[in-house]
Amino acid sequence: MLLRKTTTQDLDAVEQILNDAKASMKASGIDQWQDGYPNKEVVAQDIKNEEAYVVEIDGGVFASCMISIRKEASYDYIEGAWLNLDPCIVIHRIATKKEALSKGVATYCIEQAFALFPTYKNIKIDTHPDNKRMQAFLAKNGFIHCGTIYLDDGGLRLAFQKSIS
User: Which end of the chain is more exposed for a tag (fewer CB within 10 A), N or C?
Assistant: First the structure.
C-alpha cells in the first residue's frame, strides 16, 4: 500500500469510490453525502490545496481522503470537549473502494497521516450521527468521541479525536 497525493488523473477513480460510498450510505439509511457532495470539484480543490490523497495498491486506487493541517473552523465550537487543543491533523472525506472494505486501507490512511506530519500528535475527524460503521471504525482505531460540532450549513456531526504520545 502507498499513500500518495491525488492527481487529476485519479479523479475518475476517486469519483467512483465516493459514489460507491454514497450508495452504501443511502442503502443503510444514512443521510450523509446524499446532496451531491463530495464530488470531483471538491476533490479537484483538495488537489489544488495539496490536501488530497489516495491509497494505491498494485497501481490501482483503493481509497481517497483529504488530510490537512489547516485550522478547521467548524471545530472551534464543540458541545463536549476535545482531548486537547494541541495542533492537529484533520481528515475529511475518507472513503474506500468496496473491494477493499475491512482490509485495513482506511486504517492505513490514518497511520500515514501521522507519518506525513510527524510533529503532530492529534487527528480530528467527524461523521454523521447515523454513520455507525464509521463510528465503529473510529473507535477500533483509537479515536475518542469528544462531542458534537456543527458544519457551516448547520449540519450536526459527531466529533472524534485520536492523540498519540
Answer: C
Nearest to 96 by CA among 143, 44, 56, 49: 56
Q: Can you point out the beta strands (E) in the chain?
A: 2-5, 52-57, 60-68, 79-80, 89-96, 122-127, 144-150, 156-163
Residues 5 and 67: beta-carbon distance below 8 Å: no
SS3 104: coil
CA distance 126 to 131: 10
82, 41 Cβ separation under 8 angstroms: no
pLDDT at residue number 151: 93
- The amino acid occupying position 140 is K
- Predicted pLDDT at 102: 75
Q: What is the pLDDT of residues 32-56, one digit of tens each?
A: 898 888 999 999 999 999 999 999 9
C-alpha grid cell, residue 84: 486537547
Asked if 80 contacts 159 with a C-beta cutoff of 8 angstroms, the reply is yes
pTM for the model = 0.93
Q: Using the Cα atoms of residue 40, residue 96, residue 74 and residue 72 in order, give the sign of their dihedral.
A: negative
